């Protein structure tokens, strides 16, 4: 049986020595060199990522939901994704949700001991009435986090499809998932600090997953965020410009702005105009 050091690449010693003796220029250059490896590691995993996204899409088409589950960096990045996707694509907080040890209210706490809790995550999912129509996606750099592993095991017993993003090969969490994604980013610049390359890979894959899903659900048209929420001046201005680009007969910016604000998004403004046009006919 291989030892933990062989199995957990993320815990292997950094390729760099005497970090404390390096200049700022040396530190940033070496960190950037390591970061270059992240996209290449994701490229190797693209076939598995594609299968994962297609499986999630199938569940969403049934009216199901996507639940992210993770601790530490992965859990916090996943929670951030659930927040950002709402504003970007104009959806509520029900379709994509996050499960974090102790609940989202514990997000800013540093008590990593909660990742050893074997029942809290499943209890949170039960409180949300998890069903076979939903999908649970676990995040764990080590691939061994008890909180995440227990959730996936409970889901398997209940017939709920699962996936995972891990950064070590042949990890227990990957073996427990229906759609595992292993992104082997290698030893960290600071030994064991998986908030670095492993965390970067998880953020990039989260972007791929949520962006692809929302595009596939029609929340983007052309390449524009036509359903984005109008939560600040920048987004209102962007929405006006998008609307005028898509509807060149409207040339009065202030008129468009009033319409956009009344409707709530570019798409809703266009639908409002279309409904009025249909009534006129």
TrEMBL record:
NCBIfam families: PRK05441.1 (NF003915). It comes from the Bacteria. Pfam families: GKRP_SIS_N. The keyword Lyase applies. This is N-acetylmuramic acid 6-phosphate etherase. PROSITE patterns: GCKR, SIS. Keywords: Carbohydrate metabolism, Lyase. One of its GO terms (molecular function) is lyase activity.
């Amino acid at each position: 049986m291989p030892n933990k050091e062989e199995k957990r690449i993320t815990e292997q010693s950094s390729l760099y020595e005497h970090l404390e003796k390096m200049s700022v220029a040396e530190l940033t250059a070496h960190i950037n060199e390591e970061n270059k490896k992240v996209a290449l590691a994701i490229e190797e995993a693209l076939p598995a990522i594609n299968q994962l996204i297609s499986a999630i899409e199938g569940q969403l088409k049934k009216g199901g939901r996507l639940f992210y589950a993770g601790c530490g960096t992965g859990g916090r990045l996943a929670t951030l994704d659930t927040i950002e996707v709402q504003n970007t694509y104009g959806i509520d907080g029900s379709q994509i949700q996050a499960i974090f040890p102790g609940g989202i209210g514990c997000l800013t706490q540093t008590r990593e001991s909660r990742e050893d809790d074997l029942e809290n995550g499943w209890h949170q999912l039960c409180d949300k009435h998890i069903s076979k129509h939903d999908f649970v996606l676990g995040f764990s750099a080590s691939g061994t986090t008890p909180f995440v592993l227990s959730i996936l095991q409970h889901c398997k017993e209940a017939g709920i499809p699962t996936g995972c993003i891990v950064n070590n090969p042949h990890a227990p969490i990957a073996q427990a998932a229906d759609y595992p994604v292993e992104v082997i980013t290698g030893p960290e610049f600071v030994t064991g600090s998986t908030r670095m390359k492993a965390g970067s890979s998880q953020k990039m894959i989260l972007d791929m997953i949520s962006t692809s899903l929302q595009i596939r659900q029609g929340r983007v048209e052309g390449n524009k965020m036509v359903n984005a929420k109008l939560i600040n001046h920048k987004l209102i201005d962007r929405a006006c410009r998008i609307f005028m680009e898509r509807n060149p007969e409207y040339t009065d910016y202030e008129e468009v702005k009033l319409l956009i604000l009344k409707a709530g998004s570019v798409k809703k403004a266009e639908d409002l105009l279309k409904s009025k046009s249909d009534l006129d006919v």
